[in-house]
């Protein structure tokens, strides 16, 4: 877990699938999922940040190459210095911020919220329906954080 309440974040680059402001909004809402139930505060910065998010493809400089369309949608690193807390979205996916039942588009808000859970120190959950369940479950318009996710993040941050 992070040993501070105020965390900085930055979006290093953007996907061509969406306007930058839609990416910014999806990330902001993904962070808000967690700040709504904890004392954590997130501040966007353009300089060095605790949590750096980027869109990457295949081998991209860490030990865990992304796998192209489908499969792994993104990965994140647990809290810590350097790469700790960072999120890499697979830019081989087709990203959306809208609700699609089926189809080949992936909802950035839901994936960001899930990956940011890892950035804050949460591992996967075995509770189906929880945000931290390891399998992408798509987007529901009236998204609410599952009580399992709330309990687990509050165990870390109060």
Automatic annotation (TrEMBL):
Q: Where does Zn(2+) 2 bind?
A: 114, 118, 124, 132
Indicate which residues the UniProt annotation says bind Ca(2+) 1.
17, 91, 93
* Organism field: Branchiostoma floridae (Florida lancelet)
Which residues of this UniProt protein bind Ca(2+) 3?
A: 67-68, 90, 93
Q: Which UniProt keywords apply?
A: Calcium, Hydrolase, Metal-binding, Protease, Zinc
Residues recorded as binding Ca(2+) 2, renumbered to this chain, are 50, 84, 86
**Residues that, per the record, bind Zn(2+) 1:** 60, 62, 75, 88
Which Gene Ontology molecular function entries are recorded, alphabetically? Answer: metalloendopeptidase activity; zinc ion binding
Q: Which family does it belong to?
A: Belongs to the peptidase M10A family.
Per UniProt, residues of the Peptidase metallopeptidase domain are 1-158
Listed name of the protein:
Peptidase metallopeptidase domain-containing protein
Comment on bound cofactor: Binds 2 Zn(2+) ions per subunit.
Q: Which domain of life is it from?
A: Eukaryota
CDD domains attached here? ZnMc_MMP (cd04278)
Cofactor(s) the record lists: Zn(2+); Ca(2+)
**Record-level GO BP terms:** proteolysis
Q: Which is one Gene Ontology cellular component term of this protein?
A: extracellular matrix
Active site residues according to the UniProt entry: 115
List the InterPro entries: M10A_MMP, MetalloPept_cat_dom_sf, Pept_M10_metallopeptidase, Pept_M10A, Peptidase_Metallo
């Amino acid at each position: 877990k992070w040993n501070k309440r105020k965390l900085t974040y930055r979006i290093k680059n953007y996907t061509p699938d969406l306007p930058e402001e839609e990416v910014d909004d999806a990330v902001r809402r993904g962070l808000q999922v967690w700040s709504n139930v904890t004392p954590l505060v997130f501040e966007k910065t353009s300089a060095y940040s605790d949590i750096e998010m980027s869109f990457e493809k295949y081998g991209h400089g860490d030990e865990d190459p992304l796998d192209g369309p489908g499969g792994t949608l993104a990965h994140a690193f647990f809290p810590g210095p350097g790469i700790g807390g960072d999120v890499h979205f697979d830019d081989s996916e087709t990203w959306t911020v809208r609700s699609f039942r089926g189809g080949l588009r992936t909802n950035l808000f839901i994936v960001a919220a899930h990956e940011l859970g890892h950035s804050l120190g949460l591992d996967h959950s075995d509770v189906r329906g929880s945000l931290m369940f390891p399998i992408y479950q798509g987007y529901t318009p009236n998204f609410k954080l599952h009580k399992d996710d709330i309990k687990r993040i509050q165990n870390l941050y109060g």
